[in-house]
């Protein structure tokens, strides 16, 4: 097995948005709660563990969530509050290492191979971080600890909520062989079903397939699956993740049937996008218009300009052109605008895999 000699922790807050709401409002504790999804067209952003028992999940429509859990309580998201607590949690991370890669407000990778505390045990560091998060925020977190980001990510979900799992170097291959294929990070529902059809149910089954076979059936992802099941995943923890796009979208309470109404909404969306762009001090060349119709079919239309833009008027001019490329086939329930091909993007050299001895204190 090849891997860089690292000690990686993946910290994942437990039902973060919902837990924050229950923390701030004691009346919501112990109850089935969904953040977002309160309208007929709303989508659940997060669900408490009490709601998850009824099959309520994030990205589910509010209508279906309520059908599965009739006593479900909906609350509006408060992203300023979530961001405030997320910053407190990250400040704890930085007391242990500067190699922190946030994935979202509620999860991050930490490379503690060399850490500020001089603690050789990544397991003990993870335990201490989770304890401090609980003491300083009142919220619980789970953690996964292993030799690379992939295994740490998988492990963090193993003993949720409020738990952790360490996969030591010598345990990596047995752990991956026994792992159900649906638990592999990067293998979604569609891919899981396809693997089932090919007789792949566990990591052991996956490991028996050649790289050529996996590439034939899964394209470029085939090489990824071939490597990770062997414990090979050399992606470094990157403290400064470079955004590849910035966008804003709105779902409407009533379907839009006229381009005139769509343009009004797109101007509001462009205003919001401009504020975000100016705040981040970025610009981009590619403008993308996202349209979701009443039948839930989604369409994107993009145009790349020869120069960088960040001004609302230039973005909106391009969006208008994209909108009138083709008359909408159905009424529209969602519109979005995003800017990509940003001036912040930097090409990074490929990291070479290094074979190392994995017998070290974990």
Automatic annotation (TrEMBL):
Q: What class of enzyme is it?
A: transferase
Site residues by UniProt (Substrate discrimination): 17
Q: Where in the cell is it found?
A: Cytoplasm
Q: Which reaction does it catalyse?
A: DNA(n) + a 2'-deoxyribonucleoside 5'-triphosphate = DNA(n+1) + diphosphate
Keyword annotations from UniProtKB, A to Z: Cytoplasm, DNA damage, DNA repair, DNA replication, DNA-binding, DNA-directed DNA polymerase, Magnesium, Metal-binding, Mutator protein, Nucleotidyltransferase, Transferase
Task: Write down the InterPro entries for this protein, in alphabetical order.
Answer: DNA/RNA_pol_sf, DNA_pol_Y-fam_lit_finger_sf, DNA_pol_Y-fam_little_finger, DNA_polymerase-Y, DNApol_IV, PolY_HhH_motif, Rev_trsase/Diguanyl_cyclase, UmuC
Taxonomic superkingdom: Bacteria
- Residue ranges that the Swiss-Prot or TrEMBL entry lists as coiled coil: none
In terms of PROSITE patterns, this protein maps to: UMUC
What is the UniProt remark on how the cofactor binds and its stoichiometry?
Binds 2 magnesium ions per subunit.
As cofactor, the record names: Mg(2+)
Drop me one GO molecular function for this one: DNA-directed DNA polymerase activity
Which residues does the record give as Mg(2+) binding sites? Answer: 12, 106
Active site (catalytic residues): 107
Pfam families in the cross-refs: IMS, IMS_C, IMS_HHH
Q: What is its EC number?
A: 2.7.7.7
Q: Where is the UmuC domain?
A: 8-188
Purpose of the protein:
Poorly processive, error-prone DNA polymerase involved in untargeted mutagenesis. Copies undamaged DNA at stalled replication forks, which arise in vivo from mismatched or misaligned primer ends. These misaligned primers can be extended by PolIV. Exhibits no 3'-5' exonuclease (proofreading) activity. May be involved in translesional synthesis, in conjunction with the beta clamp from PolIII.
State the similarity comment: Belongs to the DNA polymerase type-Y family.
This protein's assembly is summarised as:
Monomer.
What's the name of the protein? DNA polymerase IV
